[in-house]
Amino acid sequence: MIAGGAISMLGFLSGDTLGSPRNLFAFARDGLLPSPLARLHPRFRTPAAAIVVHAALVWVAAVVGSFGVLALVSNVALLTAYLMCCVSAIELARRDVRAGGTPFVVPGGPVVPVAACIVLVWLLAQATSREWAMTAATVAVAAVLYAWRAARRRNQTHAASTAS
Fold it and tell me: pTM for this structure?
């Protein structure tokens, strides 16, 4: 049981290490995070700075936070992210959005993402009030950072337009 759990966690953490820094990269590319996080490694074409920052943030969270708190934040956040992906898949298919080629067509059409949405909503309904509170606090911090960045960009744009 312990070996199976360890292998499962290694798989999850490996996937997280490969995938989550891309979120930092995308946010930086879109101007929501500092631009150095959007730089790609010249040889490997990977977001090296975002990978290092993500690894450092995870390490700090693991050292400072307890497993229980981190699990609370992770549960609802991951389920919510998966739900948004499923809803996006439904909407992108409905709009017939294409990005460079023929899109992947899920066998059964919208049945799979709709079924996934139903399961995810059911799982989210099982979340405790503490899990929702931790997620709300995280979203609140993110919203404040987003608003601060947006105000900063408006001020930079206003300053540039008045200087000309």
Answer: 0.60
Mean pLDDT of 63-89: 83
Sign of the CA dihedral with 135 first, then 141, 144, and 149 last: negative
**Residue whose token pair is 């930079």:** 156
Q: How far apart are CA 93 and CA 71, in angstroms?
A: 33
CA 90 to CA 95: how far, in whole Å? 9
3-state secondary structure 52-113: HHHHHHHHHHHHHCCHHHHHHHHHHHHHHHHHHHHHHHHHHHHHCCCCCCCCCCCCCCCHHH
Per-domain boundaries in the chain? 1-64, 69-164
Please give the structure tokens belonging to residue 146: 């987003």
